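Following up on my earlier thread - several people asked me to post the actual chain instead of describing it. Fair enough. Here it is, all 278 residues.
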Amino acid sequence: MVSLGDERQHQGGYFFDLEASINTSDSEELLADQQAALSADFDPPFRSIATTWCIVLELFIVVGLEACVFILPVPQVCSVTPSLSCGIHPYSIIIYLHACVWFIVMLTDRYYYRQHSVSRRNGYLEFYRRTRNIRRTPFMVFSAGSAALAIVMMLLQDYCTDDAPCSAFHLRRIHFIQILISLEVVIVLAVLILYLVRTVKFNRKKSSPDVHQDDLMTSALQSQTQNADIGFRDEDYLDEVLEKQADMIRYLKQHNANLGRKILKLTHQLNAQTGQPM
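Reply from S.P.:
Thanks for posting it. Predicted structure:
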């Protein structure tokens, strides 16, 4: 059973979440693009995904956060004495910077979601599946890190109230913050680099939409048939095939809706030119 409603997996089927819902305003923007697919040879142009610059920007921001975490506590840079220019404790500045980076990552996550939704409606279903969890990871990591940071800050406030060492490893409270943020940065950098590599490869490959590559779905269905013939049932593989089929159905449904609106628009234009009523 394949449903187009919710993207939670249930026994015997695959379901879509709200990302699979048909957005009318987004569909209107795609009418001009999909008009090219109605040419005589039915060979739609390649549609790149404009996330590369945002990934690079996010990489620089995350690296900048890590640099500030270790540079600001240096006495020559920002001392805790009131006579120097920082004004507040480096510990507080780092917390504020982390909150600002979390907000920026949230905005980039929404931008990625927007671009990948358009790319999927253009027919690039496999690329959407391969990057779906990767693009979400930075926001989830920084959100989890913000929650952990709040807990650590309260513990440090109760048990480590000054800049003296407050652990068996002679760590000051700024060191705990540095360790926590560094763990976040390492994970996010690895994920962003992988995301960047896959995005650049996708844009350079310039493949046609998945729905125009019949061999991909045909090979998957043939493999599933062969497994069924020998009595072998791989649940993970079956879920993958069902997900691909559901993506294909969702795309074709969206494509048909766009074509219907295009036909109505052309009909109105034709009637306006000929002066005939509908």
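The helical segments are 24-35, 52-71, 90-121, 125-159, 173-205, 214-229, 235-274. That should answer part of your original question.
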